[in-house]
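Need p53-induced death domain-containing protein 1's 3D structure for a figure. Predict it.
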Amino acid sequence: MAAAEVEGLEPEAAAAEEAAGEAADAVDAEPGDPPLLVGNRLNLDLYPRGCHRLLNLCAQRPPQLLEVEFLRLSGHEDPRLLEATLAQVPCSLQHLRSLVLRGGQHRDVLGACSRGSLTTLPAGLSGLARLAHLDLSFNSLETLPACIPQMRGLSTLLLSYNSLSELPEALGALPSLTFLSVSHNGLQTLPTALGSLSTLQRLDLSENLLDTLPPEIGGLSSLTELNLASNRLQGLPTSLAHLPLLTRLDLRDNQLRDVPLELLDAPFVRLRGNPLGKALPASHSPPETPVTPEMPRLFLNSDLDSFLVTPQGCSVTLACGVRLQFPAGATSSPVNIQYRLWLPEPHLVPLGPHDSLLSGVLELQPHGVAFRQEVGLWLLFVPPRARRCREVVVRTLSDDSWSDLETYLEEEAPKRLWAHCQVPHFSWFLVVSRPVSNTCLVPPQGTLLYSSGHPGVKVTFPPGATNEPRHVRMQVVHVGSRELRALLEEPEAAASPLLCLSQSGPPSFLRPVTVQLPLPPGVTGLSLDRACLHLLYRTPPEVVWDDITAQVALEITHLYARFQVTHFSWYWLWYTTKTCVEGLARKAWERLRLHRVNLIALQRRRDPEQVLLQCLPGNKVDATLRRLLDRYRGPEPSDTVEMFEGEKFFAAFERGIDVDADRPDCVAGRICFVFYSHLKNRKEVYVTTALDRQAQAVRGQVSFYRGAVPEEVPEEAEAARQRKGTDSLWMATLPIKLPRLRGSQGPEQGQGTSLSLAPLTLGDAETGFLTQSNLQNVAGRLGPDWPAVALHLGMPYRELQRIRHEFRDDLDGQIRHMLFSWAERQAGQPGAVGLLVQALEQSDRLDVAEEVRAVLELGRQKYKDSIQRTSLAPRDLAPPEPSASQSPEFAQA
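Structure prediction for p53-induced death domain-containing protein 1:
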C-alpha cells in the first residue's frame, strides 16, 4: 500500500491493487486444500477465509466449478476482498442460480447479530443470466446496487436488516420477481414503479418508517401476502382493498385510525396495535421520535439506584436493562428518581385467569407525581412461547387499581424484545402476556365489536341497548382441541374459543345483545347434531359452568352460532356426545390454566455442596440437561407435575442435609419458589450436613412441596389437591449425595488447620454482606486466577508461595485457604467487601465481581424488608397490596 502511494496512485486504485494482491496470494497459498465442491452447491459462508478459497477455485478452474448453481459467502469478509471475489463470479460460475451473501453469523458483546460489511455489488454481477435467488440480508447496504434491477431472471430478492432509506424506480423492471423482503430497514417512501411488478406474490415491508403507500400498489395483481407491520402508516390507499389474490395482510403496530371497510371485516387482515376509531390527540408525538443530540444520556451502574432528571430531559439506561426517556419539559424542576427491581411475588403480580408473567416487577419513585409530558419506558421481557390470539402489554398500578397501558413491541435482536409504553406518572410496572383484548364505547345508537385475534367472534349492540355510553371489553382465549379430546376421551369432541365479555355501568342492557361464536373446529351447520351442541356459561367469581343451551335461542349458520343475552360473562360452545358437561367444562377450564413441568436437582461436579434446583416446562427438560450435564450431575428429572401460574412451592432438604446459608428466600429451612411459566424458576444453594462425612457419604434428598396458590384459583387448586389424597402437598423427591471426604478434604484440613472460620461473615446488613457460603462460591469460581486476586487483596508474595507449597496438589485447597485466611483477618472491619470487589475487578474477573454485587444487593433488600416488617420504614417503600375492591379477573375488565 505504501508503494502505491509513493507512485502517486489514487486511494481507490491502491485499494483495488491491494485486494488483487491478496487474491493472488490466496491462490498461491492454498493450492493443496481438499476439494470443496460437492454436487452443485458451494457453501463457503461458515469456512474461515471463504473468499480466499473461492478465488483459489476460480484460479484453478476445475470442471466441477461450471456445475455450481448455489453459492453462499459470508458478509463478514473484508469489503475489498469480497468485492474482488464477487467480480470473478460471473465468468467462473456461469450457471449460478442462487447467491447468498448474508451477514449475521457473528454476534456482538450483547449477543445481537452483527451486520456484514457488504455495501455494494460489482456491476459485472448483472451478467449472471440464470440467477433467480439473491439474499443480501444482515448487511450494510444504504442504496440498492445498480446491478440488481438488471437481473431480469431474479425471482427472490431478500434485503432485510440493512440500512436502505429508499428503493429506486428501476426496481419495477424485474419481470420475474415473486418474493421481495425489505424488512428492518429505514424506508420512508416506496417507488411508484413497485406497482408494475405484476408477478410479485409476497412482499415484506415490516419494521420500516413508511407513513404512506403509493396508490400504484393496487397494481400488484398476483400479490397473496403483504406485511406492513411496525411502520408509521396513518392511512391506506383504497386500491389496497382490491387486490384480487390477497390472503394475508399484516398491518399491526401502525398509526392507522381508519381503514377501508372492505379490509375491516376481512379475516386475513391483522390490525392489532392500531388506534382504530380514536381521535387524533392535540399534540401527537410519535413513539419513535429519536433522542435529540443535546439530550443527556445516563448509564447507571448496579450500585446506583437513583438519578436526577432536570427540565432539559435525559435518556437513562438502568443497570437492569430498563430504558427511560424524559422529554425536555417533562419536569419543571429537578426531580430525583429512584428505582428498584422486585422479585415476582403473588401480591406484586396481579394476573388474570389466562395471563402469563414475562418480566420482573419494576418500581419507579416518586409515586403519583404527574409529569408535564409523558415519559417513554422500555422494559425487557421474555418472548412468549404461544402468540396465537395473545398480546404483550405493560401492566401498572394507578389509583389503587391495576390497568394495562398501550404497548408497542420493539425487536433489538432475535429473542431480545422490548415492551415500549408512555407513562404519565411512576408506579409499579411489569410485562404480561394476555389473551387479545378489544374494547369499544357503546353509544345509544348501537355499534359492532369484533375480536382482532379471531375475527369470527362478534358482538352486535342494537340501537337503544343503553341510554348512556358504556365501555365494553372482549377477550378471546384459544382452546386446543387435542387436550379437550383427551379429557373427554372422545375423538370427535371440539370446542369454540373461550369468550369473556365485561362492561362498565349497569349489569344489564336495555335490549338483547347478539353474540356470534364460530362453531367448534370440524363442525358445520350442515353436519352438526344439535343435541351435541352445548352453550356453557360462567359468572365470576364462581368456577361453576352452567349449560344454558335450553335457555337461549341458538341461530346456526354454516360456520357460526348466534344467540342473544342481556348481561355479560364467560361463554363457551362445546360439541360432544356427553350429556352432563358442566363438570367436564370445569375440569377443561382448569386444564387450560395448568402448566406441565418437571423438577430437577443437580450437584456441581467439582463442588457437590452446590445444588441447582429448577422447575422446567416438559418440552425444555432435555435441552436444559444437555447444556448442564458437563458441569452438573444428578438424578433423572421428576415425574410430570401440574402447576398454576403464580403458585408457590418449596424445596426442603431432608435426611441429614441442610441449607448452608441465611437466605431471604429460605423459610424454616425451605427454599421458596414462585412458579411463573416463562421465567427461570431456578436457584443455586449450598448445602451442608451435621453428619461425619469422613466416616461415610451422606445420602440425603430434596423434596418439593406445594405452597399457596394464586387467589384467582383457590377452589380449583384445592379440588385438585383433594383428589390426590393425603400427600396432596408433596410433588417429588430427588436424591442428593454428599460424597465421603478423604484425607485433606476435610473442612479443617481443606481450609487450613489454624483457621476457625464458622461462622464467618463479611460486611454488614445495611450495606450488604457475604456469608461463608458466598465466599465458598467465590472460591469455586476463581480457578488459576487466584494469585492475581490475592496480590490485589494485599497479601504478600511470600504467603502465596507458602500456600502453594502447603496445598501443592490441591488447587481448590489453595484458593480456599487464601480467601478464607484473608477473610478471617478482615472480619469485623469496614470496607472488606468493597476491597474484595475491587480486587476481582483489577484481576479482570468482572463476572465474579458482578455476582458478588448481586449477593450484596440481595442482602440489602432483605435488610429493607426486615425494616418494613417492623414498621421502621416509610409506607411508600412497601410493595403494593391488591385492592380489596378489585375483581380478581380484572384482566377481563
